[in-house]
Amino acid sequence: MHAGYAEAVWLPAKGETGPPSELLHKRPVVLAPGYFGHVDAAHAQIHGQMMAAALQELRKELGEAVATPVGIFCLTAASLGPASPNPEIPDLMRRIEALLARGGDALLFREPELYAMTGLVNRYTKAPLRFVAGLSLLIRAFVDPYGNLEGRL
Asked: Shortest CA distance to 24 belongs to which of 7, 34, 10?
């Protein structure tokens, strides 16, 4: 990933790792991007509740006739800002392993931006895509420069 070969890696809570296309193919998706630095039980419960609520809302929106939505926690292997370094691999793995231990699938992205995550998911499914995010991610999304995009935030 650091060498630029993979745009994202799927890390399932159960089973073998694989390409994201196997997870996303023609399915509605809820992405929960975040840093997930707190690996204690209280924060894990909050993450789980946020994901469960988002999946429930998407199921209500879609009805019974559509494939079961998949919920995925998203992390990035990139730095979160120009002044911060890339995350250390042991720390990144600690955060991923905590999510997997609680039963959540994870996608590790090369890029930190939400539009990069959206672009990858939209390659494999035309079904609805939703994000569930905490306040810290919303703040980061509004302060990130997004200077390489046309238009404005």
From this structure: 10
HSE of 76, CA atoms in CB hemisphere, 13 A? 18
3-class SS letters over 119-142: HHHHHHCCCCEEECCCHHHHHHHH
Q: Domain range holding 79?
A: 8-143
pTM equals 0.85
Please give the Cα distance from 99 to 115 (Å, whole number).
Answer: 23
Q: Within a domain: residue 1?
A: no
Per the domain annotation, does 36 fall within a domain? Answer: yes
Return the residue matching tokens 């707190």: 38
User: For 30-47, what is each residue's pLDDT tens digit?
Assistant: 999 988 888 788 888 888
Measured CA to CA, the distance from residue 151 to residue 153 in angstroms comes to 7
Query: Could you tell me which residues come within 8 angstroms of residue 39 by beta carbon, excluding any fewer than 6 positions away?
Result: 94, 95, 98
The count of other CB atoms within 10 Å of the CB of residue 84 is 9
When divided into structural domains, the chain yields a total of: 1
Give the pLDDT confidence of 116-146 residue by residue, as tens digits.
Answer: 899 999 999 999 999 998 887 777 777 666 6
